[in-house]
Amino acid sequence: MAVTLKEVAELAGVSRSAVSRTFTDGASVSARTREKVEKAAKTLGYRPSLIARSLATNRTKLIGLVANNFQNPAFLDVFDLFTSELQKRELRPLLVNLSGETSPRKIVELLRQYSVDGVIVATSTLPTSFATAFQTAGIPVIHTFGKFQANANVHVVGIDNEYCGAMAAQTFAERGYKTVALLGGPESATSTQDRSTGFVQTAKKLGLDVAKISYAENYTYQAGRDAMREVLDDRRVEAVFCGDDLICMGAMDAARAAGQSIPEDIGFLGFNDIGMASWDSYSLTTIRQPIRDIIMSSVELVVGMVENPGRSPEIRLFPCSVIDRGSLRPVTDP
Fold first, then answer.
1. Which helix (H) or strand (E) is 183 found in, with range?
2. Any idea where the HTH lacI-type domain is (predicted)?
3. Strand partners of residue 215
């Protein structure tokens, strides 16, 4: 049988309200009373009810973590970091798998039923209106990996994807490539759209020929392998910028299956820098997204936002960097 608050109060020789205040954050209780209550609770093995505490404080300490792309290893790292960082702050993540759901209404209603204190939308594949729907419902929200907009009306933490696309084009130019291709993630993803814009515009400025633009159906190895077959139709392509490392690995294996050597016949540039990118079988040159920094900042922001829901929206962008391995030819001398 679970130990009750009444039993703790009787052993400590205090009122039940004194026990309740002892285990309520910020409640007033004397040092002597706290000592007696904590000693009695330890003796009896009492654990305060989190549900009862939430009713008293009107705070559940639940943070909705809304995401998709669970099949991609990069997102498993994201979930690991998010859940551990929230739990360190005594917050409890409530994970919601969108599973193809693109209408926010059902998800908003689900999280309202759980009375979450805040929501983190952790995906780049949804439009900005998805996060805005939570704000409209009165739920504090952060869009992590969301689209950068100067006039955003919700908190956004992530990167400038358009600039990252420009970085990819610049990387190809530095290595002497002339005819290149883009193999993006799903075309509907805002991150894909922005990286494509930055890549194509900068490639043209640098005199590169973007001979092929193709999109993978999802962020998986097989989707990358399938989409690469279309790119291989144009034998002029010297290098391919992929919108995700796992997509890029599928594309690399498709190129090898077609008899092409990497990087001698064709080069590859990935995105994210997942652990597998450093494997000898791929040695993938990639653009590293500072995932840990983004998540730490998101958790810090959601904690502050829950305590001050009226704070003005912030845009926090982090720089990316090229991690040079062996899937591209070396930088050419000027």
1. strand 179-184
2. 3-57
3. 184
CA 101/CA 98 separation, integer angstroms? 5
Cα separation of 129 and 85, whole Å?
26
Rounded to whole angstroms, the Cα distance separating 265 from 259 reads 9
Orientation of helix 245-257 relative to helix 73-88, angle to 10°: 160
Q: What are phi and psi of 282, to 5 degrees?
A: -120, -45
Per-residue model confidence (pLDDT) at position 159: 95
| Gap between the Cα atoms of 61 and 231, Å rounded | 48
pLDDT band at 210 (very low <50, low <70, confident <90, very high): very high
CATH code, residues 62-159+291-318? 3.40.50.2300
Chain centroid, CA 34 distance in Å: 41
Residue 62 three-state SS = strand
271-286 burial, b for 16+ CB within 10 Å, e for fewer? bbbbebbeeeebebbb
| Helix locations, the chain, DSSP H | 5-12, 16-22, 31-44, 50-57, 73-88, 104-113, 128-136, 161-174, 190-205, 221-231, 245-257, 291-307
Cα–Cα distance for residue pair 10/12, rounded to 1 Å: 5
Instruction: Give pTM, 2 decimals.
Output: 0.81
Pairing of strands 286-288, 321-323: antiparallel
pLDDT in tens, 49-100: 655 555 455 567 889 998 877 777 777 788 889 999 998 888 888 888 876 6
Q: How far is CA 311 from CA 84, 155, 177, in A?
A: 25, 10, 47
CATH superfamily of 5-57: lambda repressor-like DNA-binding domains (1.10.260.40)
